[in-house]
Amino acid sequence: MSGHTRSDVGIPVQMGRRLVSLAVRAPSVHNTQPWAWRIHPDGIDLYADESRRLDAADPTGRNLVISCGAALHHLRVVARASGLMPEVSRLPDPEDPTLLAQVRFSPAPLPRTAAADLRAVQERSTDRRRFTSWPVPNERLRLLAQEVEEDGGAAVPVTDVTDRFRVDLMVRQAHRLQQRDERIVAEVQRWTDRNAYDGLPSDHLPARPVVPDKLPSRFDEGLLPDNGQEVESGDGLILLCGEDDSRASWLRGGESLSALWLSAAKGGLSVVPLSQVIEVSETREALQHQVLGDVAVPLLLIRVGWQPISRSQLEPTPRRPLDDVLLT
Ligand SMILES: Cc1cc2nc3c(=O)[nH]c(=O)nc-3n(C[C@H](O)[C@H](O)[C@H](O)COP(=O)(O)O)c2cc1C
Fold it and tell me: Is residue 155 predicted with pLDDT exceeding 70?
């Protein structure tokens, strides 16, 4: 099945390599970078690398596919910013569910946002330090959700006081349950300070992960100084959702994550995904029922806020060498 148009152009290998090297700047669960790419004369194909799935925290591969979806959206953005219009066939081969997307390209004018888009891809990072107490206005959250909808996904700002309270309790409950699961705790440790290419460097994890009255961090205490003010209740919360809990929804959810994150980053907002509440089935079901009224399925909770202006930006986290993620 092709679904691609006749104006598709091939891309030179060097251009393909450049696009993939930027797409892999995408966020991924525990920085597992669970993707593999094939560059060929017609375009670029994206595969899920199931060998990098987190067996304990992500047995179904939801977070794996969401991570790949984020990389797919990154690819779309950097292609546009390089004068190429991407056309995507999602999950094109029913026989091969690891083939997540085939992307073909046609020439297109550069968007006005090209430079800012490329900068956001290169500079975005997960900054888990405490946000300032400036509240993120509901209107701002609605605009981010709108951005996701325009990209073909779904997002629900959690602004109602009762819903926020419920979400807060569910996040804590999920954290507590996972802390009791030895396999999950061991998995986090395996992915912390792993090597120079993947996993979570502890100099990116705050030195004080547990703040009273604050949502808990899933990671152990790191080395990143975090002496900011205590956060008030100003953090913005957004739920990325899907129609169902299928691979297609997860892929879209990942694209939504990237769309939201790049837009937030361009607007000076910091983003931290919180996936434990989705990974634990009882809190995921409670979220779906109590907060989404069973009209959608929750895929990822996102915390949004402002980092103090005086704070230095974090160095980008490491990535695997390009040749490791390219299929020949
Ligand atoms: C599906 C998904 C789930 C994630 N879950 C969490 C989480 O629960 N807590 C957290 O602090 N970061 C979470 N992250 C952020 C990743 O840890 C982060 O993207 C990765 O370490 C790479 O770092 P970077 O975003 O700075 O490039 C998640 C990212 C993705 C894509």
Answer: yes
